[in-house]
Amino acid sequence: MNFFEFEDRLIPLGDWIQFLVDFLVENYRGFFQTLKLPVEKTLETLEWGFTSAHPLIIMAIFAFLAWKLAGKRVTIFTLATLFFIGMLGLWEDAMITMAMVMSSVIFCGLVGVPLGIMSGRSDRAEVAIRPFLDAMQTTPAFVYIVPVVMLFSIGTVSGVLATIVFAMPPIIRLTSLGIRHVDKELIEAAQAFGATPKQTLFKVQIPLAMPSIMAGLNQTIMMSLSMVVIAALIGAGGLGSPVFQGLNTLDIGLASVGGISIVLMAMMLDRITQGLSKKRKRKK
Amino acid sequence: MSTEEKVRIENLFKVFGSKPKTALKMLKEGKDKDQIHEETGMTIGVQDASFTINKGEIFVVMGLSGSGKSTLVRMLNRLIEPTSGAVYIDGENVSTMTDDELTEVRRKKMCMVFQSFALMPHLNVIDNVSFGLELSGVSKEERYARASDALDQVGLTVYSENYPDELSGGMQQRVGLARALAVDPDVLLMDEAFSALDPLIRCEMQDELIALQEHSQRTIIFISHDLDEAIKIGDRIAIMEGGRVVQVGTPEEILQNPADDYVRAFFKGVDPTNIITAGDISRNTQVQVIRHEGDGPATALQRLRNHDRDYGYVMNKKKEFVGVVSQENLQRVLKYSKLDSDNLSLALMEDVTPVLSTDSMQDILSEVSTKPYPIPVVDENNKYLGVISKNIFLRTLDKTEETINGEEI
User: Fold this and answer.
1) Per residue in B114-161, pLDDT tens?
2) Does position A283 have pLDDT exceeding 50, yes or no?
3) Dihedral through CA A176, CA A212, CA A41, CA A59, nearest 10?
4) What is the pLDDT of residue B294?
5) Can you tell me the distance from the alpha carbon of B249 to that of B252, in angstroms, rounded to the nearest whole number?
6) Which residues of chain B have a Cβ shorter than 8 Å from any chain A Cβ?
7) Average pLDDT over every residue of A153-182
8) A193 vs B116: CB contact, 8 Å cut-off?
9) Helix, strand, or coil (residue B184)
10) Does B79 sit within 8 Å of A192, measured CB to CB?
11) Chain B interface, mutation test: which of A185, A193, A284, most B Cβ atoms within 10 Å?
12) Could you tell me if residue A51 is inside a domain?
């Protein structure tokens, strides 16, 4: 009996998946194309906004946000970063990336926060959701990028879709964590004063989970940025494309410039949104 | 105090575990809490609790931790669902209410103050206080007005814009109290409300609670593990042990007649002179002298002699206490003023102050020990009730010592 020598492939899982994807592409491509429509519209709008507005206006908006949320030092850093990226000649790419990150964050938030709340309030929901989150976070992007292209075709929208898959888990996890960490006694107090489950959620749990939800948003932004280069593989524009081009032509300089811009942008967005999660603790 | 019933608890049980029905059956078969826990892993939280709480009284549920007192109070507003039994408020059965009815009761009738304060950290003081009103949809203007009023009652008006973490523990609990008062509930549930405060602040809060209670007669159900607290604020006390209510009664009743060793042990080390009042031990054994017109010192002296007493207690026709006369004084008056008019007042002893029937033995100790005569006891209308002699005072002390030490009397 050579069963346990594992020489033959007894479970053709790969074939099954191949079959499933083929089946979906053949029969449900229309459905998936409709699915991508809202993402496409959002992305188009944001991209139009970011690229057509004068750089000074964009810089002013970011400087204002940084100043409001995070203070003077971050404001200076934000202006310097944007100015530097502009001087590198990557302004347009940076704005496309920004639009991609934003649309990904919007959809992660729209889907992720409710899912996070669900899994924060019910153990059963959490058990059901957790394996998907594990898969979304650990499956190498290269594995699902091909099916994504097959279902949603090539381009920036598919890049954003892949980004959403990768960047959604942290906001779900941290929202759930935030909801779970709300003091049991506070929930009990709310109930004792006659709060309905909905009131408890909106008046106690969500406000108190806000720092954690904001931290999740911050992580989602960071992970979206880390997908920029991989998204460029399937034809998404933005700061990923100089890196990708540089890799293809062994142009180390070009790849590095793209990479540095991504890092700087990540730092900038991180500092601004970290301010958000701290600021939320007390509004006066 | 009226004895109108406000809250009634009937055969309340709580079993924590997967099959409460089984545990209830085992209880009926006579198995005890520990046996059931051993066999099934289920815990009996509260076991067959029944009592009535009257309108306007402070009812203290007392027991050590794990005695089920917190579980019991949470079953009143169903933060914990009873396994079986019923809770009535104003005759309405809370345990069978729908969610909507229950929400209404929680919003309007029964509010809670928590040991850990449980204030919302993201809301400032005024928003915390108006939390209950906000839940029932009261307009912002009205709820702020009522909240300020409640804050005023606990003396925290100036802190309305502060956040809970900027306040001390005592102040936070005042906010917790104000949050409950703002709703103006009939019933106030206080779950170890003062236990997390340091002793001085705790004492202050107890005094304030009593003062508040004098203004508005709420029904307060107060959970405590501290006997001194229970005696100080409680009109009646229920003592719980291992999920059962062992005894219900006024502090004096419980002290003088502990139901079992557990209760007796509780009262060990308690100074009985704080609980037993002058009214409890006064005896009407002395000669009463009613001041009639024409009844002079001679009549009084005669009566004292007949009864072989040294002192007489003088009162008017309405039985209002006037003073004390002694044989010595009466003789002196008779000797020096031969007038027939009312000379009784001349024979009154100096420095006689009657004690109130509600004063504790502790309060009257110095009076009893320094005065030669048995000291007179009056009620709040100055009506004469009786006297306390040194003899009775000491005998009471001795008796309570014996009760507490578990010896037969």
Assistant:
1) 988 999 999 999 999 999 999 999 999 999 999 999 998 888 889 989
2) no
3) -170
4) 64
5) 8
6) 77, 79, 103-108, 111-112, 114, 116, 118-122, 131-132, 134-136, 163, 179, 183, 189
7) 91
8) no
9) coil
10) yes
11) A193
12) no
pLDDT digits (tens, 9 = 90+) for B187-216: 999 998 888 888 888 888 898 888 888 888
Residue type, A256: S
Distance from CA of A210 to the nearest CA of B (A): 10
B118: nearest CB among A185, A199, A281: A185
Number of Cβ within a 10 Å radius of residue B352? 19
Residue A79 lies in a domain: no
- Boundaries of domain holding A196: 91-279
Give pLDDT, residue B128: 94
The answer to whether B250 and B236 are in contact (CB under 8 A) is yes
What pLDDT is attached to residue B222?
94
Q: Is residue A231 part of a domain?
A: yes
Residue B409's pLDDT is 36
CA distance B67 to B239: 9
Answer for the pair B133, B125: CB distance below 8 angstroms, yes or no.
Answer: no
Is there a contact between A209 and B122 (Cβ–Cβ < 8 Å)?
no
Chain A partners within 8 Å of B119 (Cβ): 189
pLDDT value of position B406 = 46
ipTM: 0.77
Q: What is the DSSP string of B29-96?
A: TT--HHHHHHHH--EEEEEEEEEEEETT-EEEEE--TTSSHHHHHHHHTTSS--SEEEEEETTEEGGG
Give the least confident one: A19-33, B23-37, B80-94, B335-349.
B335-349
What tens digit of pLDDT does each residue of A207-235 get?
Answer: 999 999 999 999 999 999 988 888 888 88
Mean of pLDDT values over A124-152: 88
CA–CA dist B45, A229 (Å, integer): 60
User: How far B84 CA sits from the closest chain A CA (Å)?
Assistant: 21
Q: Is B383 exposed, middle or buried (0-12, 13-18, 19+ CB in 10 A)?
A: middle
Listing DSSP states for B135-180 in one string gives HTT--HHHHHHHHHHHHHHTT-GGGTTS-GGGS-HHHHHHHHHHHH
Is domain B1-109+206-270 classified as CATH 3.40.190.10?
Answer: no
Tell me which of A133-142, A182-191, B175-184 is least confident: A133-142
Q: How far apart are the first and last CA of chain A?
A: 75
Query: Is the confidence at residue B408, as pLDDT, over 80?
Result: no
Domains contained in chain A, number? 1
C-beta atoms surrounding B72 within 10 Å: 27
Q: Output the CA torsion sign for A121, A124, A127, A132.
A: negative
In degrees and rounded to multiples of 5, residue B360 shows phi and psi of: -80, 165
Tokens of A104: 């990904």
- The arithmetic mean of pLDDT across residues B294-319, rounded, is 82
Domain B279-396: assigned CATH number = 3.10.580.10
Residue A207 sits in a domain whose CATH number is 1.10.3720.10
Name every residue whose Cβ is closer than 8 Å to that of residue A71 and which is 6 or more positions away in sequence: A275
For B73, nearest residue in chain A (alpha carbons): A192
Partner-chain contact A194 B136, CB within 8 Å: yes
pLDDT at A183 exceeding the cut of 80: yes
Cα separation, A225 vs A221, whole angstroms: 6
Q: Residue A284's pLDDT band (boundaries 50, 70, 90)?
A: very low
Report the 10 Å Cβ neighbour count for A18: 12
Determine, for residues A186 and B179 on separate chains, whether the beta-carbon distance falls below 8 Å.
no
Q: Give me the residue spans of the domains in chain B.
A: 1-109+206-270, 279-396
* Closest partner CB to A192 (pick from B77, B116, B163): B77
The mean of the pLDDT values for chain B is 85
Domain-embedded: residue A146: yes
